[in-house]
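User: Hello! My lab partner asked me to get a predicted holo structure for this protein. The small molecule is pyridoxal-5'-phosphate, SMILES included with the sequence. Please write out the structure tokens.
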Amino acid sequence: MQQFASDNYSGVCPEVMEYLNKANQSHEPSYGEDKWTAEACELFRETFETNCDVFFVFNGTAANSLSLATYCQPYHSMICSRLAHIETDECGAPEFFSHGSKILLSESDNGKLHYEGIKELVNKRDDVHYPKPKIVSVTQTTEVGTVYNLQELAEIQRATSEFKLKLHMDGARFANAISSLQDKNPSIAAKDLTHKAGVDVLSLGGSKNGLMLGDAVVFFNPEEADEFAYRCKQAGQLASKMRYISAQWLGILKNDTWLKYARHANHCANYLEQELKKIPEILLLFPREANSVFVELPQTVIAAMHQKGWKFYTFIGEGGARLMCSWDTQKETIDIFVKDLKACLIENK
Ligand SMILES: *Cc1c(COP(=O)(O)O)cnc(C)c1O
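Assistant: Hello! Below are the structure tokens for the protein in complex with pyridoxal-5'-phosphate.
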């Protein structure tokens, strides 16, 4: 049964399966020395239209914490939103892998950092008793389903250049962000949201975009990735059969398949939102810009929906039920969900 709990409830898209099969034909060198990995890295450089350095890891927590650790000494600090995944959902991995860099929490606007919030944390103190701010981490798409537009990213870049900070992007749902912005401006490309916007390193999510597993770390200043391979190996993130992670990216990056699926997920969430808006008792919580819809529901209704077998999270962001659409969400699933929800609302009046 399809669910709205998370986009990582979904399976593997056919294009990725095809490449897993292609990569499975014979023997290949291990630890990333294979041809699939080389081809995937080349395709990343084409996709981002720059000479970036790419590493393949098992998940987003590793991508985030290892890339942040690259820039941070233990006495540094990393600035992110109070709602950021690196703060709330990574079990302290960014602090652990950086050997103690402190996360500084900024206020955010619907999950998005802004210049003033960063400035306040940086200017709070400038003495040795305060951990030195070193890097800003933005999540694109944010944890509450909003998307930084180019102006908002330019504001962040203004702060990082003014305060000499590095910029990390948690792109667990990066494709959903591009696709969302492309709905308004079709010429927007991956480069506009990353190195052109001052992003130094991107954690690019795969598992929520149709991969079986695996995330990529993309360094836009290759000299900064100098020793990253050691970091991955030491952290247990160097796959010996690397080709099965890397070849998958050929499946989704070719022909803009990643964007096709992200667009589908976004449009499903739009449809879900439109259907929910027709129910007067329901309060929507954040502007819907990508593939999630957040709604406020009475506890009894949440329990009744769970009773009917629906799974969704109620602990993300600032509460409310998060309904997440994925690359393969079907319109019929949305219709059944909405019908069940209407019934639960009547029964629990
Ligand atoms: C899913 C997600 C991640 C990655 O999580 P893993 O379970 O470690 O792969 C990172 N950031 C955000 C915002 C996410 O939603």
